[in-house]
Amino acid sequence: MHAENTMSLPGCVPWPDEFARRYRAAGYWRGDTLGALSRSWAKAWPERTALVDAAGRVTYAELHHRAERTAAGFAELGVTAGDRVVVHLPNSADFAVVLLALARLGAVPALCLPAHRAHEIGHLAALSEAVAYVIPDVYAGFDYRTLAREIRDRVPSLRHVIVAGEPDGPDQTRLADVDAEPGELPGPAPADVAVLLVSGGTTGLPKLIPRTHDDYAYNARASAEVCGLTADDVYLVALPAAHNFPLACPGILGVLGVGGTVVFAADPSPDTVFPLIERERVTVTAVVPPLADLWSQMWEWEPGDRSSLRLIQVGGARLNADLARTLGRSLDCTVQQVFGMAEGLLNYTRLDDGPDLVAETQGRPLSPDDEVLVVDDEGRPVAEGEIGELLVRGPYTIRGYYRAEDHNAGAFTPQGHYRSGDLVRRLAGGYLVVEGRVKEVVNRGGEGVPAGELEEHLATHPGVRHAAVIPLPDPVLGERVCAVIVPADPAAPPTLPDLKSFLTARGLAAYKSPDVLHFVPALPRTAIGKTDKRALAHDVTPTPDAPEKPHPHPH
Ligand code: OOB
Predict the structure, then answer these.
(1) Given the CA of residue 343, which atom of ligand 1 is nearest to it?
(2) 39, HSE (Cβ side, Cα atoms, 13 Å)
């Protein structure tokens, strides 16, 4: 038997007993497991459509049936409770089936994004000592079976490669063959780890984030409530399903929990997504800001009746306030900002918040028991409205990364708060404004220039389509401020003096102005679609002697 509050997976940090007791007493943790939930959904509304993908439609009864049989199939392969399985599937019904099957078995899926490659997967498979690796055959022009061979050579713990589609050798198992008569499976305890999420950081190798059945079920349920989800909702998975946002905020799990329908889009392009919204009468979806921008531009030009959409959630990176305002008008639906993290804490603007809160803040915490602190460099709370680092603990925020004892010592306070690394301001009512990242402050001769703040100002210039601010090494100042800009009109990019006077007119301190401009046709993106600052820093080669000659447009 599992003790009430131990996560049986070694390498995880449980909540202290007093917190676990409190979260149970408050009704956040209800003793649910994802497997048990799937059974109760199938019982409550067996005939409703749970999933829609390119392969067809799946009812709740079928979903549960397939998950049970797949769980038994995994057990037959020798996968047991507590084993880790790297799941690397694109948006599809198979993703949901495998997730629920592993959850039912108590095996722990490490949920990787389709864009991850050998570098990340090799690391995550080795770190988790995964016994199996679940892949598609070919997706978006990439053959995952070849990748799987490479990973298998590198990671001795991997015993099975399971292919959703066509295996290309006898050493791979077809997912359809991971199938057996459901028998007695003990299943996990609610305090056990349900999934390992991959951290979204743009620096260093990704880390694994252990989320328990109890905490993740609460995450999805409470999020569904904030979004007013009902059985009539149809949720479009446009972002990669393995990411916390479309998975549980409220996403797939939140929608299944109310008997709604989950529609998987193979990719988030308007060409794919717009017809799906029309055909399936989609009511809710979640996007990152660059997608919100693209959809908003294409919406009025693309034919079709997409009036079913009632709510678009935008999160994952800073949403420009102007775009927040125009988005709702262009799409004729409610906009919700979501500031979340795979580590836990979620902030939402509420559906009845006024336009200013929705445009200018990133929402407020989901749970009454989210304990948010905003602190200065010394860890002292700052005054309301002042910028500081966001620390948090609560009923769905982890107390430690998986197998990362050394890193955890710095990433969490002794009191158990997660140090998010996000610079925020807290306003009245607990609403948060994200100002940037602790490490994304350019140290310009001792003066700190928060990248996020400057990016926000730059983006309001009519000649700027997107802006990202990064430090460049400087022999005198230590670092200088480089603004990487996607110009609105590539034929007429803004000039440095132009931007400087624009920023001064907006009241920004002179030392916060860029020292150098660098023009690019598009910003590099991470696997989920955020600006990839690491790739940018790598691409933008310092030109210490010729700072006024940016590539490729002179100004
Ligand atoms: C979401 O999760 P992750 O783990 O990929 O990334 C978390 C980080 C945050 O610490 C913050 O730096 C940034 O992404 N972020 C935002 C933001 N939402 C996330 N920065 C500014 N504005 C926002 N609205 O990205 C995530 C997880 C669940 C729901 C939504 C997003």
Answers:
(1) 4
(2) 10
